[in-house]
């Protein structure tokens, strides 16, 4: 005869029925074909309303509240560090128990989203810019050539520390990793419109005003011919030192290229940033062994970008602007 846990659903239903008929446990055990103790335990369990058996939790509600406070104090700690703090607080639990309690609370270990670090003045300028551009149509945005530099590494695996957050907390300021622009030694320059992408330029040295003007001369102008033909267009770039240098401004005036005014530290407003992300995701399974193989992989992946992808990204500009206005100039999810 099996234990109580081995009783089938039919046996349990039979025990309940015979119990209601007033049969004794001895008779019920004989008819069902199990031990009398199994019948007794099943009846007692039903009487007490117990839904499950097993060891009682070793942590109280107070312990759980303490754990949640520890996690929220610094969401970038790993389980070992959180467990150590919880133990110091007087809770006796294993590392795996700590992890389970965090999961029970809804915390999951995720790669933090990155947002630019904005000061008050930058937020105000972003808001003013967004309000100025809120009535631009899709046709007007299609005349903009978006450009940017991006760094590509042979290994894409190092994404930094993870963060503990619950569902819906992806935009919580305590769950975000601030990004600050630093000069990059190796970059790729690219440009896009709503119709297609332009040619890539692999930069061999640090980008100063002179290097950037060479890129404009030999890559931006050909890209403009390729993307717009003889039609008018507006060029967009950020406020990096090489871009905002006086000599660079003079270059644009001499070549008759109009510029789109752009708020500082605003990669979330630039659709080409999302395009770089698409390229890097498509390259995730690539394993280049050296810089030349990496360049070849980037070129091949860039060539696979479709007009539909470009059009969809540029069409998102009204939504980006609306989000910036709603956030009062703060960084957005884009």
From TrEMBL:
Q: Please state every residue range assigned to the domain named Transposase Tc1-like.
A: 64-132
Instruction: List the transmembrane segments.
Output: none
Any coiled-coil regions, as ranges = none
Highest taxon, organism lineage: Eukaryota
Give all residue intervals belonging to the Tc1-like transposase DDE domain: 144-295
Question: What one GO molecular function would you report for this record?
Answer: DNA binding
The record's Gene Ontology biological-process terms are:
DNA integration; DNA transposition
Extract the PANTHER family matched here. TC1-LIKE TRANSPOSASE DDE DOMAIN-CONTAINING PROTEIN, TRANSPOSABLE ELEMENT-RELATED
List the NCBIfam families: transpos_IS630
Q: Identify this protein by name.
A: Transposase
Native organism is: Gadus morhua
